[in-house]
Amino acid sequence: MDFALRDGIIWMDGEFMDWKDVKIHVLSHGLHYASSVFEGERVYDGQLFKGQEHHERLIKSAAILGFELPYIAEEITDIVNEVVRRNGLENAYVRPVAWRGSSDLKVGVSDNKDIHFAIAAWEWPNYFNAEKQEKGIKLQLADWRRPDPKTAPTEAKTAALYAVATLAKNKSEAAGFDDALMLDWRGYVAEATAANFFMVKDDVLITPTAESILNGITRQTVMAMAKDMGYKVEERHITLEEVWQADEIFVTGTAAEVTLVGQIAEHTFAIGLVGKRMKEAYTKLVHK
Fold first, then answer.
1. Where are the domains of the chain?
2. Which residues are catalytic?
3. Strand 9-12 versus strand 15-18 pairing type
4. CATH architecture, range 130-286
5. CA distance linking residue 128 with residue 232, whole number of Å
6. Exposure of 79 by Cβ count < 10 A (0-12 exposed, 13-18 middle, 19+ buried)?
7. Where does 19-91 show beta strands of DSSP type E?
8. pTM (2 decimals)?
9. What one-character DSSP code corresponds to residue 158?
10. Please, is 45 exposed, middle or buried when counting C-beta atoms within 10 Å of its C-beta (0-12, 13-18, 19+)?
11. What is the helix (H) or strand (E) element at residue 163, kind and residue range?
């Protein structure tokens, strides 16, 4: 369904509005130059999961792009909760987004104080359907690579970083895959198009260092959870040759949650005990 035609309530710039009435100007700076930041969050059983962490990151992302949100993290959490309540949702995906408006359309707009902020929420199941979850998703190797932190604001969750992800995702789906595995600018494993990467070897969880990737909140949650469960966790550079020798693969993200991987390119992987345990433990945690 066209997202612009859904029913519901969206909060924007201090007002609760009918979903279909929310509009932005075609000359908004965020549309032309990607001066936009956002978050993806989930509500489980009526409770927002790790809202404080998400909203602190949103504020940080805006600061990296040179603008300031007029709310602190706790205030954003209150607005999110009200949006969820007004939409009558118990389990939902939440999208806060902030962007520079149309007061100026120069590339350099450090003096552009026309900042807009909106929050929407809707029902959305896991990023991948139940059958794919059971068998493990299939990843294609992406042609596009994650950038050097010196060439892009990789610490920010910004629209600017998702263009290559969209290109890689589109190509992978056209080829019959579910998603793509992206390398970083040096050729090390980075992440999927919108999810962080984990491999398991000899019961050790290994994940790329957070240099060219977004240090996902689900990623951090899973790492802490794994350590509490007695697993060793390593953050380091990973080569493709190591991936081909992995015992198990899974990816993590707010939308993807913990999703098991059954294939990358022509290489297949077992749906193993470690990945299943992490998936079950994460599900139990978020529904606590």
1. 3-122, 130-286
2. 157
3. antiparallel
4. Alpha-Beta Barrel (3.20)
5. 28
6. middle
7. 36-38, 41-44, 47-48
8. 0.94
9. B
10. exposed
11. helix 163-174
**Which CATH architecture describes the domain 3-122?**
2-Layer Sandwich (3.30)
User: Which residues, listed in sequence order, are joined to residue 164 by a DSSP beta bridge?
Assistant: none
Tokens standing for residue 56? 């602190």
Asked whether 49 and 43 are in contact (CB, 8 A), the reply is: yes
Q: What is the DSSP letter of 161?
A: G
Using only the alpha carbons of the chain, give its radius of gyration: 19
Q: What is the pLDDT of residues 10-26, one digit of tens each?
A: 999 999 999 999 999 99
The two three-digit tokens of residue 271, written as one number: 């749906």
Residues 98 and 116 sit within 8 Å (Cβ to Cβ): yes
Q: Which residues pair with 47 in a beta bridge?
A: 44
Q: Are 254 and 217 in contact (CB under 8 A)?
A: yes
Residues 106, 33 contacting (CB under 8 angstroms): no
Query: How far is it, in rounded angstroms, from Cα 249 to Cα 197?
Result: 8
> For 154, phi and psi rounded to 5 degrees?
-70, -15
How far, in Å, CA of 117 to CA of 97, rounded?
Answer: 6
Evaluate if residue 201 carries a pLDDT over 90: yes
